[in-house]
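Researcher: Here's my situation. A collaborator sent me these components and asked whether they could plausibly form a single complex. I don't have experimental data yet, so a predicted model of the whole assembly would be a useful starting point for our discussion.
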Amino acid sequence: MALRAWFRPPRHVLTIFIAVALLSGCALGWLGWLLWQQDNAVDVQRRRERLEEAADRAVAVMDRALQGIEAQLGPAPVRHLPEGVTLLTTGGDGDIVVKGGPRLIYYPVAKGLPEAASDTFAEAERLEFAGQDPAAAARAYQALSKSTPPPIRAGALARLARVLRKMGHLAEAARTYEELGSISAAVAGIPAGVIARDGLAELMAKEHRADGLRRHAEAFRADLKAGTWQLTKEQLAFYQSEADGWLGSRTAEDADALARAEAFDTIWRDRRVDAGVSRRIIYASGSPALALWRRSEGSLDVAIAGRSFIEALCQEAVPSRDVRTALTDVEGRPILGAPTRERDVAARAAVSTQLPWTVYLSTAPSASAPGSLRRRLLLALFAVLTGVIAVGAYFIQRAISRELLVSALQTDFVAAVSHEFRSPLSSLAQISEMLARDRFPTEDLRRRSYDVLVRETERLRRLVEGLLDFGRLEAGAALYRFETFDVTEFVGTVVAEFRERAAAQGFDVELSAPKVELLVRADREALSRAIQNLLDNAVKYSPECRTVWVDVEGKEDRVSIAVRDRGLGIPAHEQRDVFKKFVRGAESKSLRIKGTGIGLAMVRHIVEAHGGEVVLASEPGRGSRFTMILRAAGEAS
Amino acid sequence: MSRIIVVEDEPGVAFALEVDLKTEGYEVMVATRGDDALELIRSEPFDLILLDVMLPGKDGFDVCRDLRRSGVRTADYSADGEGAGGREGARPRAGR
């Protein structure tokens, strides 16, 4: 029932409006959603196209780079080798030569350095071991160390140092090792430099020179790591363990360096490798290494590159930060990054590109979507439209609610006015009828009936005039005849007139006004109506206290006329609204106090037309005070 | 002589009723407010109460309810404020 009441006119206007606003809002939202979806689809398509283009470009760049390296495999001189690429060549004699780029950490075979024949030192060694004559042996080695060919010198110095150590001549042994270190030759297949460094370290350990030993061992370890000497894997492992022993810590494993060395080792050893040019990714020590090689009769040329080169190549091939690159080898093992499972991935398989890897490109999560600006604009547009609809709906709804309220107030007003009319009319009808039927028994009663007739007629006249005045004020058609007069005297007259009427209801009006002239420029009739309305109200809303007060005051250029009562008072939340037309306080309704709700609205109209203001001070249960503040006039005209 | 109290806030209507009923030979009293009427009825006996509905303060129904609660059984005619008014609209509310 309550719901049905809601849809009854005039409230159905509001319901219809809300429905229309909601419908249009929903339609707008749906439209926006569709546009958004469409835009998204276009965006995905574009992103895909861009990825495909980037993939083609990347493959071309990578292939060109690898071809550039491959062109340098073989007898041609090294022109420009990208960073991180080691170019190696092996001749028919099995010697490995690093043509360019960083050296490998170890090689399949040690470098074939010149070495003296072992029987060169047979006589001296016989003295050293069989003869047990180290001094004689030392002399013999010393004599040999003076010879010109470096291999013999190296062999003699290494053995001399050994004998000196045995004899306890440690300082001399150290000098001998230092001399040995500068010779480019091998002793027992090991570079002289390595033997010298190892021997020196052992001397330092023997002499307990901890600081010197650490510095020496660290430098040795760094040189081993840098591939200073061409050692085999086993030699490297041995000398690294020597350095580890002196330093008391394991050499940090360089997976990339190991992978590169192992990759070369694999290619070098792989007898199946056919003649011609090949590319391959080799996994070693958990790290990928790229190997490019060319085998021709008797010679093998290899380019080895590690992870850093592959990364740099990817960077060059796919410079955009918005695109994520991943590479896998032919068996699907990740080389760089990991291929995503997203739908928008552009892949180029190794088989079709001749690259040693498969390339995957996908959009980086951080990438700014190309349509994001357009979409933001779209979103902003819809937000604005929704906002406009919402704000519009709110204001229209407010306006309709207000109109509904006014219409309800007007209905109340019509009822109130009808009642106001009926009361004097009832009296008039009844008394007129009694007079017509000659029902008054005495002359005195008949005369009193005339008084009642006069009073009720006057009441009707005032009511009609009040309504007409209000109508004129509302229509803005009220004409004021302003004149300057003394307000004290004027209020006195109005109060005196009202006092007569109020006396019939048992009310008294007390006037307090200064004895001086207070001039205002006002319309006498309008001001009189305003005061009377306030007095009417004071009497109506003062059921207990039968006195109302009127205070006139002049202060500087202001004249105030206050009407106060000790009646019901007005609650704070109603104080602003009581000046609105047709509005009556809640208590006036519950206590059935008669009135039309236009009195105070008229007072405000009139006072504002005079350039003044009405101030209300009221407290429920203690009464109200309405003060009209007007501008004082200069002098009487 | 039967005593009637007229409770009516409109002085004109009250005056007319008072004169009319007095002419018919009743003893008539007038009260303009519900509270005044209650006080009078409780202190003096009346044979009939003519009660207006639209009264300031306590309305006719409130006055009637209060009277019945305090045990007054006097017949009362409520002048229906919503009707034509006057005696035509009056309807009996309770018997003696």
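Model: Some features of this prediction you could bring to your collaborator: The radius of gyration of chain A is 58 Å. Residues 76 and 99 of chain A are 10 Å apart (CA to CA).
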